[in-house]
Design goal:
The structure is a homodimer. By secondary structure, the first copy, chain A, is α/β, with parallel strands linked by helices. The first copy, chain A, has helices spanning 9-17, 29-34, 50-56, 80-83, 95-107, 125-130, 145-154, 191-194, 218-231, and strands at residues 3-7, 22-27, 44-47, 65-70, 85-89, 112-116, 139-143, 159-168, 178-182, 199-202.
Chain lengths: 232, 232
């Protein structure tokens, strides 16, 4: 079972309150005193000074704590798709975007996120930091995404994705369950998956400028989609 | 009048098609041949090789062109607020967030963006890159934001902002004109401006987890607000 790095006081606090197993906590004595529960949970604890933490840290402004946390083993049952809205990530490359997408999903109560094998590792330290704690609440699974989407469509699950030629998202009926596919930053949703999407949507631009903007950032598009699905 | 740096083929192409004055264009002969219009517009042109462009570039993957472009002088009339929706940025610190906010505004046809004196410089190279061309279409002004908001409120302009204790944005009447205030990444909207906001909104969380997420990234909140104001 893999582990991942969690840094910064707030994120380490999130790790402590979460159901995740902490393998090792490195922190200052002040931090340990402020969180007495860490002494009672069998966590391996190293008390040291801020300077030593800085040396081990990837952050520009290291803080008083870092932790090595076990990666969870999340299962995924297709039954979930009949009741819940899930995100499917088709080759998201940028760790900041992925972390932000986890944070959006968490906000909108979307628990399950299915990642293509090509999507950046959700336990990459930059993803973890950008998720602002969402990494401890949403459940991610890596899968062969085209097969997963194909099986879902065959089971009658609605699969949504945004495309330039899609239907106006603001005017469509949107299901309370199913899959929203988010595509790559540069290339959008890949061809094999595009062909499987059952409901093609577009977030219309309201620009009246002669040079139209071409696209929205994928995390921004994710936010607008989640907002539209949930508000109804 | 100040200038700013524009990098990468796509962004330099946006600069060329825009109404902005290019002071200097540094590019490969291939790029110049693909854009013959640059020879006829009095732009100072330096043709060189990719290696020399790389040396002058701030990008991790430099391309075939960079340009020095004049900053526009944008005026701002308060009459605009009676007809249009504008954004007011109250101490946005992160260049990536600011660039993304410009891109969202551009997408949703919001032309005027008023920045506090504390907000990161819109012509910072990271802002310019993250804007993906929106910097050439939206109009930004720097102002004493508390005075600006105060005057607007006194003129009867609705001023919206998101707060934890606000009214559910999905259920509120939203005006087609007025001001949406976006606050600092860590601290939200500053106290002096909070006191002036006429319509306090919240983007409700749909999380059912026992540890609730605390907040959304400011650019994500901006996207959801713009989407809600525009879709109606």
């Amino acid at each position: 079972m893999g582990v991942f790095l969690v840094e910064g006081n707030k994120m380490v606090e999130e790790a402590i309150r979460s159901s995740f197993k902490i393998e090792l906590l490195v922190c200052t004595s002040d931090f340990a005193n402020q969180h007495p529960e860490v002494n009672n949970t069998g966590i391996e604890l190293i008390i040291t000074d801020s300077e030593s933490i800085s040396k081990a840290s990837l952050l520009q402004n290291p803080q008083d704590a870092l932790a090595i946390v076990c990666q969870p083993k999340n299962g995924f049952s297709e039954l979930i798709l009949e009741k819940e809205l899930c995100l499917a990530l088709d080759f998201i490359q940028d760790p900041g975007n992925l972390g932000t997408i986890l944070r959006i999903a968490d906000w909108y109560g979307i628990i399950h996120i299915v990642c293509s094998e090509t999507t950046v590792d959700v336990f990459n330290p930059k993803v973890v930091q950008a998720s602002m704690g969402a990494i401890f609440r949403v459940k991610t699974t890596i899968t062969d995404l085209p097969s997963f989407i194909k099986n879902s469509v065959e089971s009658g699950i609605p699969v949504y994705g945004t495309f330039l030629e899609g239907q106006n998202i603001y005017k469509q009926l949107l299901s309370p369950s199913g899959i929203i596919v988010l595509g790559n930053e540069g290339n959008g949703i890949s061809d094999p998956i595009s062909q499987l999407v059952t409901n093609k949507l577009v977030i219309p631009s309201f620009s009246t400028h002669k040079n139209k903007p071409e696209s929205l950032n994928v995390a921004i598009a994710a936010a607008i989609c989640c907002s539209e699905f949930r508000r109804r």
